[in-house]
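Homework help board

Subject: predicted structure for assignment chain

Our instructor gave us this sequence and asked us to write out the predicted structure in token form, then describe one feature. I got the tokens but I'm not sure how to describe them. Can anyone check?
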Amino acid sequence: MPRWKALPEELDPQVREFATQLRRLVDKSGLSIAAVADRTGYSKTSWERYLNGRLLAPKGAIVALAEVTGTNPLHLTTMWELSERAWSRSEMRHDMTMEAIRITQARDALGEFGGDGPGASRPGPGTGTGPRPAASGGWHGPESPATPPRPPAASPAPPAPPAAPGRGRRRTAVFVTALVGALLVIAGAVLLTDLGGGGDDKAKVAESPPAKPSPTASELPAGVKCAGDDCTGEDPELMGCGGEFAETATTAKVGTAVVEVRYSETCGVAWARITEAAPGDTVEITSTQGDAQPQTGTVNADKDAYTPMLAVPSAAAAEACATLTTGVEGCTTAGG
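My token output:
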């Protein structure tokens, strides 16, 4: 019986129940995590993350587990769908929190360029209870804890009475939005200027073959979080490029170990995997086209390892090499 770690306290109750159910199925089957990994096609490291609540398992892994344990997949996938929604809500709350932090940082940075201009809001004379920025990003009146006031950016407008709390917040949001829009317009103008330069530059642009566009977030399958260069250096399991979206392109025997090129057409990436290896053995994925930096992985006590992803134009452009602690080295054959 596996001795499970405690699930994270911040885990959503729905996700917690789902992870607990997965643990029960594994316990009931009598299989080790390594055996579950071998029979489902998902790595042992990935299953440890799924079963410890650190990552929501993809649907393909759940269907595979149902087959391995003889469980009705309908009930299990229904629980997965509910958990997936709960997981997405948790990620959305996290993204909103980070966005609020970035907006606050942007407002603070803009305030450093301001001063006690004609339109700046100031505390009421002699009271020290005028509006002041709160830590949450809003504006609070006299009941807020006393903090040193920060004057907003100077305004060229004539002197005006201090704005109401709600108006001050909206004005700041509109200003930040307008500033971002202006920067985007400037960036677009610079790009168009560069493309419309001298004749030689135009010829170079015309001669360059069009790059294959990477799928947008809305075009990617559910659970897949990156494509192309955005995936380079990322974990294929964490980003959803493994499992049903990956296949073994080439394989080679290096000493007692087996090294593979794993390729995901959906994500436009490849990574290397080594199995039947010894602790300390290393594996590396390289691209035979372009000058992208190779990605490496090191075997631990699990006797297997895989590298981070590397963007490649095709599976034929990827090569996996292994270096064993015994001194033996070997590679797959790129393109075949």
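Reply (TA_rk): Your tokens look well-formed. For the description, you could write something like this. Residues 73-111 form the longest helix (39 residues). That's the kind of observation they're looking for.
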